[in-house]
Amino acid sequence: MDNQNRDLAKLWQAQPVASVDLAQIKQSLVSERRKQRLFMLLDCSAVLPLLYVLYRFWDDFSPASQAFQAIMLAVALPMLVYQLWLRRIAAFYRADQTHCHVTHLIKQIENNVRIAFITKHSTWLASLCMCLFFTERYFYGALSDEKIIRNIFIVLTISGGMAVWYVLANKRQKRLQEKLRSLREMQEIR
């Protein structure tokens, strides 16, 4: 039996070991930090058009449109804060130990899955809200025939873009879930 254990130990020690490239891991962390900070900037700038529309056209809106825009803002701002909170781990994280990096990478990927889910569903919600807004504007009588055609074109163009964004967010969510699963398996092996 002792001979068999020695043979197993030799076999175990003969297994190839993949070396960990610390420089690559640190570069991955720096790259992820930059991306998350850029995404935070983009998230914040995405609210600016809504604020501009509210500031510039508030008096032109019907009371129903004003209420609709206020609700949109009341939903958008907490969602912005939530997404910024989800991005905080990678955007502001600093550590020198590899195991800490893997743990924080798993946490950030979990958050990225949540962000992809939110993005995926906000695309069709944004298209729906845009259609509701222009429908209200039409029934309020605020749109001429010329503006109706222009707005239909705008809605269709933006909705087409949102459909593409939905597909990309769905693929990203699935890819991140797979990456998360493999990282968790790797962490369990350690």
Can you characterise this structure?
This protein has 6 helices and no strands. Helix 4 (63-92) packs antiparallel against helix 5 (98-140). The relative contact order is 0.09. It has helices at residues 2-14, 22-46, 48-57, 63-92, 98-140, 145-189. The chain has one domain. It is an all-alpha fold and 190 residues long. Keywords: Membrane, Transmembrane, Transmembrane helix. The chain crosses the membrane at residues 38-55, 67-85, 124-142, 148-169.
List the domain count as a whole number. 1
Q: Hey, roughly how much beta strand do the residues contain? A: under 5%
Distance between the termini: 28 Å
User: Which structural category fits the helices and strands?
Assistant: mainly alpha
Count of strand segments: 0
Query: What coarse outline follows from CA principal-axis ratios?
Result: elongated
Average of the residue pLDDT scores: 84
Looking at how many chains there are and whether they match, the oligomeric state comes to single chain
Largest sheet: number of strands, sense, barrel closure:
none
Q: What gyration radius follows from the Cα positions, in whole Å?
A: 25 Å
* Contiguous helical run count: 6
Low-confidence stretches: none
Give helix and strand order, one letter per element, not per position.
HHHHHH
**Helical amount among residues, as a percent range?**
over 70%
Transmembrane segments: 38-55, 67-85, 124-142, 148-169
Keywords: Membrane, Transmembrane, Transmembrane helix
